[in-house]
Write a structure and sequence with these properties.
single chain, Copper Amine Oxidase, Chain A, domain 1, alpha+beta, five-stranded antiparallel beta sheet, 11 helices
């Protein structure tokens, strides 16, 4: 074909359009893929933050109210005791100080401080900071920054820049300019002006396209993996702090009230007792022989059955557990009892006997969730449900 004339010009323009359309199609596809990932990641973060913030606020409010309630009850009890007491005034004064939340290092002050989100170093402050997206280097801040496309050098920003055709020296910038007949010394600029043959232009464009699309894929994959790892680390840190806070406050409460009850008995000859505090985190609670259990994946109710993470509950029940990946099944053994369950299978076996389950085991957020009543009762435990506090009470005999 002649290198001049209408036919040549049409063929030339066809190749130019082909290259430009290949770039435009790819740019549109990758921009849409990035946008979908960015929006999904942002929503995932916001949903998680909302859930954890509300969970913290519920428990902080409950703990504050509990401390106030105890203070009021103890004050009223002290008033009653004072009217009747005729013994050593030093004992009465000592007891008065011990139950005073404003008396330095008193048992009641120790409990009140532990529940105070504004008391430096308290359990509740540490929990508040962990879920605060604006607290420097908190797990929640790290998660937020990772998915923030405008946070300098965040993985999301790196991904955004890679697919941004206007970001200097980005892979997409190179593709846009390489396909642009007006960009000085680009592949298509040279081809359009006749300094590069179509054969050579095809070769160079193919090499550029392969290099830059691979670069975008690599940056996207690295960004996604970094975000995934940051998310996992943040969730683990917040989970651990939540468990540490709740358990720490429960332990401090128990220690405080045991000290006060002991003094009350010793000084005044009367026994006093207190109702347990069942944490309100907006989640189902599980208490095993009075011990509050902390689950990384919150328990859930499906068709009236409460499902909990397999490994945590089996560990607490003293069960040896084996996961069979090829069959998605579980074998749990304790003493002479052997339990077999399979994900999504409506039946299980206990020592070879087939049992129909109300709800089969499920995989939820990559956690194997098992029906807690079936598992516990199969091991000889007593299980009760309290609707008011959304709590499962498991009583396991020591001999079990």
């Amino acid at each position: 074909m002649s290198s001049s004339g209408p036919a040549f010009a049409a063929t030339k323009q066809q190749f130019i359009d082909q290259v430009r359309n290949e770039y435009l199609g790819y740019e549109k596809k990758m921009s849409a893929a990035y946008q979908t990932f960015q929006e999904g990641s942002a929503k995932k973060y916001e949903d998680y933050k909302k859930y954890q913030t509300e969970s913290f606020e519920r428990f902080a409010r409950q703990a504050e109210q509990d401390a106030q309630k105890l203070d009021k009850w103890l004050s009223q009890d002290l008033e009653s005791v004072t009217k009747q007491y005729r013994g050593d005034s030093a004992k009465l004064r000592d007891y008065t100080n011990k139950i005073n939340p404003n008396y330095l290092s008193s048992p009641m002050q120790q409990y009140t401080n532990s529940t105070n989100p504004n008391y430096l170093g308290s359990f509740m402050m540490n929990y508040k900071n962990a879920v605060n997206e604006n607290y420097l280097n908190s797990p929640m801040m790290k998660f937020k920054n990772a998915v923030n496309e405008n946070y300098l050098n965040s993985p999301m920003m790196k991904y955004k820049n890679a697919v941004n055709a206007n970001y200097l020296n980005s892979p997409m910038f190179h593709l846009k300019n390489g396909s642009n007949t007006n960009y000085l010394n680009s592949i298509m600029y040279k081809y359009n002006r006749g300094s590069l043959s179509q054969q050579e232009a095809v070769k160079q464009w193919g090499e550029l396209y392969k290099t830059e699309t691979q670069a975008i894929q690599n940056i996207g994959n690295r960004s996604m993996e970094e975000i995934k790892q940051t998310e996992a680390a943040a969730k683990e840190a917040i989970f651990k702090q939540k468990c540490t806070t709740v358990q720490g406050i429960l332990d401090q409460r128990k220690q405080t009230l045991e000290t006060i009850a002991k003094l009350h008995q010793e000084y005044f000859g009367e026994e006093i007792s207190f109702e347990p505090l069942i944490p309100d985190l907006g989640e189902i609670n599980v208490l095993l022989n009075g011990e509050w259990l902390c689950f990384e994946q919150p328990p859930t109710q499906i068709n009236g059955s409460t499902l909990v993470p397999m490994r945590t509950i089996f560990e607490k029940l003293g069960v040896d557990v084996t996961w069979h990946q090829e069959t998605s099944s579980i074998t749990a053994t304790k003493g002479s009892t052997k339990i077999s369950l399979t994900i999504d299978k409506p039946t299980a076996t206990v020592n070879g006997q087939t049992i129909t389950l109300g709800t089969p085991p499920r995989l939820i957020n990559s956690y194997t969730m098992v029906p807690i009543r079936f598992v516990s009762e199969s091991l000889g435990a007593e299980v009760n449900w309290d609707e008011g506090s959304k709590t499962v009470f498991i009583t396991l005999k020591e001999s079990d």
